[in-house]
Design brief:
- By secondary structure, the chain is of the alpha/beta class.
- It has a domain of 199 residues: Rossmann fold.
- Helix content is 35%, strand content 21%.
- The strands form two sheets. The protein has an eight-stranded mixed β-sheet with strand order 6-7-8-3-9-10-12-11, with helices on both faces.
- α5 crosses α7.
- The longest helix has 18 residues.
- 41% of the residues are buried.
- The structure holds adenosine-5'-triphosphate, iron/sulfur cluster and magnesium ion (MG).
- The site of iron/sulfur cluster (SF4) has 14 residues, from loops.
- It is a peripheral membrane protein.
- Keywords: ATP-binding, Cell membrane, Membrane, Nucleotide-binding, Transport.
């Protein structure tokens, strides 16, 4: 894909707040990222860092109240998803953006057959009649590697194994050939062999269908396997972002460095889950005016309490362009290497 190709999804300055009885929770603070056709963006960050809320904000899946989107733009092609009405957004969700949740049992309806659930978006958004929708549903189940697809259409979700249900969810998300597939920890509940099969499947689909994929995970091994770029979130912000090889080899943010330091080798690891880093996550009760990582950061300086660092491009990124970091500090060895 040419570097200059227009992004399919371009998110700028997204801000999401929850209004609760105990006060406001600033869950997403000026998050920006983009995605090009055929790209996989991996998203990592500890629990509560705002990964799911960011993605759900994009496509209007958060209940309001308590959620309130306070700012930003979510451009899908030339449409700002934050400006369209609820009905148009529902159409986008069914047809342009596919979403796979962590637990397929909560998103598959137990009282309808799997076939009915795959056919519904096909009939609604693609205007297919019953016969056409059925044929396409069989095709989709085959595509996600479910054997005996025509027969399995008549099964109910509980008659499938966890891995198979996850494949069904992917089939539903893919039904209308979306431009963007958002997968929020879709393999966490699955055993490693099934995880590996799903990852292979996603890589194949991205090649076959050219869709852009956002993959949220706690597993850095998964990121290394599927992602082109990585976005690291902390305290509702993007603290580092860049091409996967570059970021894993030359992490700049103290949080990313702490995550990666705990893992001896990323590639080849079947499972390299995020390690718990000492200290408490930040309290998100206001727009941060200081670096949210400062209480846990070994490199915190005076400026870190006064100024929340903006994202800045990393100069001379050794392995690729497009690496940026939100931090006042630069790792000395890397800084010298980059300027040698
Ligand atoms: N309905 C809600 N009401 C109030 N606060 C919420 C609500 N949903 C999420 N939050 C808060 O928003 C913040 C971000 O949550 P989010 O679910 O995006 O985290 P996450 O990065 O996806 O974590 P995990 O890895 O555990 O899935 C958290 O502080 C969470 O407590
Ligand atoms: S801005 Fe300061 S406190 Fe925050 S991560 Fe960088 S060095 Fe640490
Ligand atoms: Mg989440």
């Amino acid at each position: 894909m040419p570097d200059g190709a227009a992004p399919v999804l371009d998110v700028r300055g997204l801000k999401t707040v929850f209004r609760t009885r105990g006060g406001e929770i600033h869950a997403v603070n000026s998050v920006s990222f983009h995605l090009k056709r055929g790209e996989v963006l991996g998203v990592v960050g500890e629990s509560g860092s705002g990964k799911s809320v960011t993605m759900m904000s994009l496509i209007g899946l958060l209940p309001s109240p308590p959620a309130e989107i306070r700012g930003g733009e979510v451009m899908l092609g030339d449409r700002d998803l934050l400006k369209i009405d609820a009905e148009e957004l529902r159409q986008v969700r069914g047809a342009k953006v596919g979403f796979v949740f962590q637990d397929p049992m909560t998103s598959l309806n137990p009282v309808f057959t799997v076939g009915m659930q795959i056919m519904e978006p096909l009939r609604e958004h693609m205007g297919l009649d019953k016969q056409q929708a059925e044929a396409r549903a069989v095709e989709l189940l085959q595509l996600v590697g479910i054997p005996d697809a025509a027969k399995r259409l008549k099964s109910y979700p509980h008659q499938f194994s966890g891995g198979m249900r996850q494949r069904v969810m992917i089939a539903i998300a893919l039904a209308c050939n979306p431009d963007v597939l958002i997968a929020d920890e879709p393999t966490t509940a699955l055993d490693v062999t099934i995880q590996a099969q799903i990852l292979e499947l996603v890589k194949e689909l991205r090649q076959k269908l050219g869709m852009a994929i956002i993959w949220i995970t706690h597993d850095l091994g998964v990121i290394a396997t599927v992602a082109d770029r990585v976005m690291v979130m902390y305290g509702g912000q993007v603290v580092e972002h860049g091409p996967v090889k570059e970021l894993f080899a030359f992490p700049r943010h103290p949080y990313t460095r702490a995550l990666l330091k705990t893992i001896p080798s990323i590639t080849g690891h079947r499972e390299a889950r995020l390690q718990v880093i000492e200290g408490q996550p930040p309290i998100l009760n206001a727009t941060p005016t200081a670096c949210p990582f400062r209480a846990r950061c070994p490199h915190a300086m005076e400026i870190c309490s006064r100024e929340n660092p903006a994202r800045r491009a990393v100069d001379a990124a050794p392995l690729g362009h497009g690496h940026d970091v939100a931090c006042h500090w630069s790792p000395p060895a890397l800084h010298e290497a980059a300027h040698a």
